[in-house]
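name: query_chain
kind: protein
chains: 1
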Amino acid sequence: MEMTKNEKYLSIAELFNVLNNYQLNYAYNGDFTNDLTERILSLAETNMEVESESLKMKKKVYFIIVESLQNITRHQGISQDARLMDGFFSIHKFTGGYLIGSGNAIENEHIPSLSQKLAKVNSLSADELKEYQKEVLSAGGFSEKGGAGLGLIEMVRKSGNKLAYDFKKLDEKNSYFYFQSKITEGQNLDTNSPEPDKFDIVENVHKVVLDNNLKIFFQGQFKHENVRSLLSMAEGSMYLTEKFSFKKTSVSIMIELLQNISYHATGLNNSEDRPGLFMVADNNNICSLITGNYIENSKIEALVKRIDHVNSLGDEAIEKLYLETLLLEQDANKQGAGLGFIDIRLKSKNKIEIEMVPYLNEKTFIIIKANIKY
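structure:
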């Protein structure tokens, strides 16, 4: 079955609901460099700290992420269509564990060898895997594409579950390799156990991401620690253009949007919670930076009024308002005059978009979108 693209875009609220159903915590689709993979690892590590995961679980997840990211960069194919070569990575958090997914183009000639290794490690029990690992180590067989299945063996042993995978044809030379590892505290490697979990989550999420031109999706707690890591990761993904002005503008707007969540979002369970959403989309030379968070309904009118006001102003008027507000922000007695939205409007040179999704009686999920042309 070949990969296809749907031209119907979901609204941000619809997109959030769809991905939320897959318990998606984080996803990235695009070019994978060594620098970017390090930033992804840093974000994952920081986020697990914020989520207060056990040390045992953190070690397992970190190892699987490292192997998954290495797999993306190790098995790259070559195609005239650069878009087909984009890698994909996702983290899904569920009760009791994580699902780590990845996707990358692979040359068709390497599929039989890789499939054989995957089928082999999935066929073995925990004790058999341990013995097989010793055999592979003693044989010392390594290839240009990496070790002789050592990484796969260790992923099964550490995750406690069998691996799921699929190949979808891209063209005559390449296919897209989907890979999924479920991480739980216990092990489910009995040879009499059923087949690995049905492979659909990572594949379906990737299709939604592609159909809506998403580059980054993050859903979780927005505390100061992981906001810094998220900003660093997002900054490292800005490979779309070499224009310094675009990178400077996009990072500046991201800071404003992310700070808005960490400072002003309301919690659902307690006042310390900062649940939110961050997305980056790319469509027709427009980079869209999107955030979402819960706020008290009593604050909606003032927020909408403030955004409507900055959207109504022309270039000269918005610059004048920026300077006036900047002076007010520097006045200790008049802080909180709302410089953030003015700055976003001024730097993006586009109107700020806002979407509201009602949640219970006291709170609403507010989605804010800033578009930047590059």
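note: Residues 1-7, 143-147, 190-196, 332-337 have pLDDT under 50 and may be disordered.
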